[in-house]
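C-alpha cells in:
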C-alpha cells in the first residue's frame, strides 16, 4: 500500500494514470462511484458562492478546441486541461481527452495529478444524473440516448444508479456506435432498445439526453419531436457555434445552467438573446429557486461542463486513493535542502 505524500514529503505528487483510474473504478464499482461522485458534486454546488469562478479559457481552431478550467474553494485549487475535437474519432483518437491537477492553496503545491478522460466521462454523467434527480419527472423510467459515443454508456448508467431509470433507447446516426453502446450496456441491469430514428428513441422517454459531437449548429432535436413534461439533458452543445437543439425548443423550456457567463458563450442558449431568463442550478439545489413546478413543463439542463464539477471529481479521487496502491509518486517538484539554493542542488546533481 502506498501512502499519499504527507506535508513533510511534498516533493512527490501522486499521479493517477489511465490504467490506475480504471483499477480505481473497478475497485469501487462504476455505479457506486457515479452515485458517490454525484454526492460530491452536489455538495460543491451547495457551496457554490464560495468558489472562484471564471468561464473556461478556450483556444479554438477550425477542427476543435483546447480549454483550461480553473477554480478554487479557498483551500484547494484545481484545473483541468481538456480538448474537444469531433473529427478525431476518424483517425482513431478520442473526441475528448483530459488531465487535471489539485493543489493546496496554502502552499501552492500540487496534491494530485490525474488522467481525466475516464474521469470526465464519469463526472459528466454524475452531474447529469444529479441534475435530473432534481428536475426530471418523478418516477422517470425511460431515457432516450441520442449520440452513442464515448460518454453514452456512462450517462445511461448514471441515470440508472442515481435517478432509477430502467430502460434506455439508443440512437446514433452511425449504426455502429449504437451497436457498440448496446453491447456495452448488455447485462448492466437496463433494458436496452436500439432505434433507427431519433423519433423512435424518444418514444415514451421522460428523459432525453443529447450527446452528439459536431462542430456546428446542428439540429439533433426539432421542436415537434419534444412533447410536454420531459427533461432534456443536453450535453453535446458546449462550444461557440456548436449546439444541438432547435431554438423553438429553448423557448418552450425552463432552462437550467451551471455558470451563466460560460453557458451564454458555449451552451444552447448562445442561440437566444443575452437576457433570456435562465436558472442557476445551485440555487435550485439550495431551494432558493424553483425547479420543476408542473408535470407539463419541459425542463432543460443546458450542460457545458463547469470547473467545479472537475474540482469535485479530483477531490473524490484524492479521498479514495488513501490506502490504495493506485498511484505513482511523481518527482515533479524541485526540493533543495535550502529552499533558496536551487542552483546548488543543480550543481550537486552534475556527473
Ligand atoms: P463521441 O465523438 O465519442 O460521440 C459522439 C457521437 O455522436 C458519435 O457516435 C456520432 O456518430 C454521434 N452523432 C453525431 N451527429 C449526430 C446526430 N445528428 N444524431 C445522432 N448522433 C450523432 O463524443 P463523446 O465523447 O461521447 O462526446 C459527446 C459530446 O459531449 C461532445 O460534443 C463533447 O464535446 C460533449 N461533452 C460535454 C460535456 C459536458 O460537460 N457538457 C462533457 C464531455 C463531453
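Residues out:
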Amino acid at each position: 500500500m502506498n501512502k499519499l505524500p504527507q506535508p513533510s514529503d511534498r516533493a512527490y505528487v501522486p499521479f493517477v494514470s489511465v490504467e490506475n483510474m480504471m483499477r480505481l473504478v473497478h475497485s469501487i464499482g462504476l455505479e457506486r462511484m457515479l452515485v458517490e461522485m454525484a454526492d460530491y458534486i452536489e455538495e460543491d454546488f451547495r457551496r457554490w458562492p464560495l468558489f472562484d469562478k471564471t468561464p473556461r479559457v478556450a483556444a479554438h481552431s477550425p477542427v476543435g478546441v483546447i480549454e483550461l478550467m480553473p477554480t478554487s474553494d479557498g483551500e484547494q485549487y484545481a484545473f483541468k486541461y481538456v480538448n474537444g475535437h469531433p473529427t478525431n474519432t476518424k483517425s482513431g483518437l478520442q473526441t475528448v481527452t483530459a488531465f487535471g491537477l489539485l493543489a493546496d492553496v496554502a502552499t501552492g503545491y500540487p496534491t494530485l495529478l490525474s488522467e481525466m478522460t475516464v474521469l470526465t466521462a464519469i463526472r459528466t454523467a454524475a452531474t447529469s444524473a444529479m441534475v435530473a434527480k432534481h428536475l426530471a419527472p418523478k418516477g422517470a423510467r425511460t431515457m432516450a440516448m441520442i449520440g452513442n459515443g464515448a460518454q453514452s454508456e456512462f450517462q445511461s448508467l448514471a441515470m440508472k444508479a442515481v435517478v432509477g431509470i430502467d430502460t434506455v433507447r439508443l440512437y446514433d446516426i452511425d449504426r455502429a456506435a449504437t451497436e457498440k453502446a448496446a453491447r456495452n450496456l448488455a447485462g448492466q441491469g437496463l433494458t436496452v432498445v436500439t432505434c433507427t430514428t431519433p423519433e423512435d428513441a424518444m418514444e415514451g422517454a421522460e428523459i432525453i439526453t443529447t450527446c452528439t459531437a459536431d462542430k456546428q449548429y446542428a439540429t439533433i432535436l426539432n421542436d415537434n419531436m419534444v412533447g410536454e413534461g420531459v427533461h432534456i439533458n443536453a450535453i453535446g452543445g458546449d462550444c461557440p457555434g456548436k449546439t444541438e437543439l432547435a431554438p423553438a425548443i429553448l423557448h418552450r423550456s425552463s432552462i437550467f445552467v451551471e455558470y451563466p457567463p460560460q453557458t451564454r458563450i458555449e451552451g444552447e442558449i448562445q442561440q437566444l438573446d443575452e437576457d433570456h431568463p435562465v436558472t442557476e442550478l445551485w440555487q435550485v439545489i439550495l431551494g432558493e429557486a424553483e425547479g420543476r413546478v408542473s408535470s407539463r413543463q419541459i425542463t432543460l439542463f443546458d450542460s457545458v461542463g463547469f470547473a467545479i464539477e472537475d474540482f469535485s471529481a479530483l477531490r473524490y479521487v484524492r479521498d479514495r486513493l488513501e490506502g490504495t496502491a493506485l498511484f505513482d509518486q511523481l518527482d515533479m517538484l524541485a526540493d533543495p535542502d535550502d529552499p533558496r539554493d536551487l542552483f546548488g542542488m543543480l550543481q550537486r546533481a552534475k556527473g
